[in-house]
Amino acid sequence: MNSLFLIFIGIPAIEVFFMIKIGGKIGALNTVSLIFLTAIIGIYFAKLEGIRTIRSGAINLYQNKIPIYEIISGASIAFAALLLIIPGFFTDTLGFLLLIPFTRKFLIRSFVKRKTTQTNQESSNTLDGEIIEDKDKKDEI
To answer: Under a CB-based contact definition with an 8 Å cutoff, are residues 110 and 76 in contact?
Structure first.
């Protein structure tokens, strides 16, 4: 089955399930308030982490280093902010995990490690070679 189809059907189903379960425990008004509160707090922390990442990237640029981690971290912070804006507890949990620097580093490292492993497996079919010219044929020309 198409993974995009599963994302568009699975994530809203999980969100509705959690909203019903939590709403049954704490009430509907408290559930809606909690969803708004997590969105507001999450966007605030996304802003702070984004500013921290921009500062770190600027420091790397001043030191003539390529801010690769900061670029990937900034993209993951933007994705976390998007997840926090979407109402629901599952996406908020994922968004907060991406905002925490320790878990963000762990996720980025595991993602990069997986991509480099896939790239190394694909490039294992190449052969390295060297061209050696005959000196006898070179003298004849």
So the answer is: no
CA distance 5 to 140: 67
**What is the secondary structure of 80-137 as a DSSP string?**
HHHHHHSSSHHHHHHHHHHHSHHHHHHHHHHHHHHHHHHHHHHGGG---------HHH
Give the pLDDT band of residue 110 (cuts 50, 70, 90).
Answer: confident
Residue 129 banded pLDDT, cuts 50, 70, 90: confident
Confidence of residue 16 (pLDDT cuts 50, 70, 90): very high
Q: How many residues does the chain have?
A: 141
Q: How far apart are CA 129 and CA 3, in angstroms?
A: 41
* 8-state DSSP, 63: T
CA distance 84 to 94: 8
Say what the pTM is. 0.74
